[in-house]
Amino acid sequence: MCPQVSCGKNCEGNAAGCKEKPARPPVLMNDLGGFLVCGRRGGDPFERAVRLDKNGKCQKKGYKPCYKMSRENTICVKDKRQCPITWIKWAKDKTEVSAEEKKFKNVKVLDSKVNGFLLFSKAVDSLPVISIKMLQE
Fold it and tell me: For the segment 26-79, what is each residue's pLDDT rounded down to a tens digit?
């Protein structure tokens, strides 16, 4: 990640000679089976997220890594409650829920009481979920 430099009151730019990493393509997740999910944006926009430096330390004082992840996927926050969701999946039955809970740590489960379970985690080694599109089949 390129360090940001201040160049005036309303200006930010990248340090000279620094190359930006290209964006990654989106990861398509499973549909949510008719389950209504409401969310709220929180924290800073992703482009201003505090990341780890080359030594694995948060680039701002007072910030801590959300969870133990790869350096390129780690976001630093002041409060763990601000950690972004990094993984979402719809599970149709408890067998699938159990399999995912074994595969990933810190999986939270919401039971729709009708047709499945919404699983999510803030600790799966992935960049934050920044967009969700839901379609009904």
Answer: 555 554 555 555 666 666 677 788 999 989 999 999 999 988 889 889 999 988
- The model's pTM is 0.63
How far is 16 from 14, CA to CA, in rounded Å?
A: 6
Residues facing 13 on adjacent strands: 5
Rounded distance between C-alpha atoms, residue 64 and residue 50, angstroms:
9
DSSP assignment of 62-125 equals T-EESSS--GGG--EESSGGGPPP-EEEEESSHHHHHHHHHHSSS-EEEE-SSS-EEEEES-SS
